[in-house]
Specification:
About 40% of the residues lie in helices and about 10% in strands. Helix 1 crosses helix 6 and helix 4 packs across helix 12. The protein has about 375 residues and is an alpha+beta fold.
Amino acid sequence: MPNVGRNDPCPCGSGKKYKQCHGPIDAERAAAQRKIKQAPDTLWPKIMDSLDRFGTAVPATLSTFWNGAYSTSDIQDLDQHEDRGSERFLTWFAFDTHNEEGQTPIQQLIADPSDLELTDAEKQVLTGWASVRLQPYEIVEVRKGQGIRLRQLFGEAELYVEDQAAAKRLQVGEVLIAHLAPAADVYFITGAAAHLTPDTVEKLREFAEIHLQDLQQSQPDATYEDLIQARSHIFNHFVMALPREEQDGNKVNELVAQTRATLNVTAAQMGFNSGSSQPSAKDRLEHLADDTDDEDDEDGDDDEESDVSVAEEAALDVDSDANAVYGLSDTTQTLESGGAPATTSDSPDAGMVHPGAYEGQDD
């Protein structure tokens, strides 16, 4: 609806001035929308603080997310090895891991938010986060000073992200691997996001196709949506293989080739046909690990079984030692710092993660 002045006739046709008719109603609705859009900034820290109740799942899931490269003994130094490593893991842990009943921590908090002390706006926003998962998006439009429009790389949905700082740093054709969480009629980048150059798209599609074919061995009707629900951690594995500055296409090619070979061998072994002011994230993760260690000491059993399939466990053995460090967004807060994106290579097989593409504000 076009802007209507307070003293203009109300568009409803009542003959009254707007301020005496629908003006107050529209103002109240707009205020409620603003509260919902602001809610993620306060909701996300509360979710991070609540992850203590899910701490026993950390050891197995930490190894899964980092492709076997790190364990709980590495938590203290994780951020030195991986840019915002603690935040990346905790965001994925909250949205993507699941218990024996198939519920993620976010879904469990939606069912029982009693210890979060949420506002009405935060409750409404949290309910909409049940299906959020880590996945890649291609940037299809940049609205300078406003936000970006993205399309799922493995789907048809287009989402609008309201983020002025991201709009200054991202370009059409680039890829964002992120958790995009809804609030009102827009989306927000929640947690840390990887910003990839356009020439990674084809290799990323090939990498995901390999995993989809493997999933279809046990679930013949599985789609990319099923893959994202079951194995979103593979997108972090892909990012880990990408170089930060010097482009080395061999790392990505090796990851794709080794993943294909490993999953084919595993499928054969299984009898399938082989087809084609808040605490920092680091502090929170260390606290979760300490709680888990205490429980392990009590029962004398340090072994945690992963809930991933045998094929996924084999995929964790893929050696990707590039250890890329990349520009990440902050949580849903407005991003202020960070430099311009690095120059994209013309090599179709290279691909990289933007070094310091946008750093965001520190907590």
